[in-house]
């Protein structure tokens, strides 16, 4: 019986690897993005800040880009291309008014990060992702990957930026 | 002679403590802000992200707030007031267009962090700063503290926000 249970765990784990990745903490199973198989990296919210973005127009978002230690070292050292293992995560939030700031300044001029819109992940693996500049891409909403059509747009959008190793974001001082 | 040298070092160190703080790395001496004596905390650029802000109007800035581990734990645990030792640093940058994003989207709609404008620091010490809600404030430009007139404005601006322990920034998801 105990052996059966172990076998069952093994099978479930294998199913997990195919469509999901069981995270090291074991608390959550993240579904992998189509095409690239990229998942939301564990602990990304603790990563160091690269920079921030304000997207006007249809987006009306505030964004922050965080990097794992490999990415941050490359940025700070000014080394391109990024080494394998570098991961950049972009947090996209709805841009909402800041009651606090506006009250303090007596003007409606301040906006802050509101609810999360989506999360984008770039993973550097020059062999695995050789066809897309060495980067794998993942787009997630509420922790779930967007569909293949969304992911087909990632690299064409980044392709013109070979000079910065296909990365938009520059490191903020 | 060696004893003289030691004495001299001691005197220089004492002078240092009065107007400056010799950083643990020994590489730089940071001048302390007037009124509060707050200095730029070592390694703050490695701290975790709290949230981001867009200030329109006269500011035209993008901002990010980072917290030390004590501050981040308090935010994530929803615990107010912040415990002593909590430090929040706000990085204020000029908001500049993003050539990369605008090219990728075919629209002039993206802005990113440009040159640093100033850096603001809030340090929680409920005894030392009892008269100002338990917070000491520091405003720095190019690593140098702004004058006393600037620092006199800090607490009056934060005073209405007792409910959030005088802190404007909310933690972004």
Task: Tag the structure with descriptive keywords.
homodimer; alpha+beta; 2 domains; two-stranded antiparallel ribbon; 25% helix; 8 strands; 5 helices; disordered N terminus; 173 residues; Chalcone isomerase; globular; six-stranded antiparallel beta sheet
Q: Kindly, what is the distance between the CA atoms of the first and last residues of chain A, rounded to a whole number of angstroms?
A: 60 Å
| CATH fold node name of the largest domain in chain A | Chalcone isomerase
Percentage of residues in strands of chain A? 25-35%
- Give the strand order of the largest sheet of chain A, numbering strands 1, 2, ... along the chain: 3-4-5-6-7-8
- Please report the number of helical segments of chain A: 5
Derived structural class of chain A: alpha+beta
Major sheet characteristics of chain A: 6 strands, antiparallel
Order of helices and strands of chain A: HEEEEHEHEEEHH
Radius of gyration of chain A: 19 Å
Mean pLDDT of chain A: 86
Low-confidence stretches of chain A are: 1-29
Helix content of chain A: 25-40%
Shape descriptor of chain A reads globular
Task: Kindly describe this structure.
- The structure is a homodimer of 173-residue chains.
- Chain A is α+β, with helices and mostly antiparallel strands and 173 residues long.
- The first copy, chain A, has two domains: 1-31, no CATH class; 35-164, Chalcone isomerase.
- In chain A, 25% of the residues lie in helices and 32% in strands.
- Chain A has five helices and eight strands.
- The first copy, chain A, has helices at 2-19, 69-77, 99-105, 148-152, 154-158; strands at residues 20-22, 29-31, 48-55, 61-67, 87-97, 110-124, 135-141, 144-145.
- Chain A has a six-stranded antiparallel beta sheet with strand order 3-4-5-6-7-8. A two-stranded antiparallel sheet of chain A has the order 1-2.
- In chain A, strand 1 (20-22) and strand 2 (29-31) form a beta hairpin.
- Chain A is globular, with a radius of gyration of 19 Å.
- The interface between A and B is large, with 44 and 43 residues.
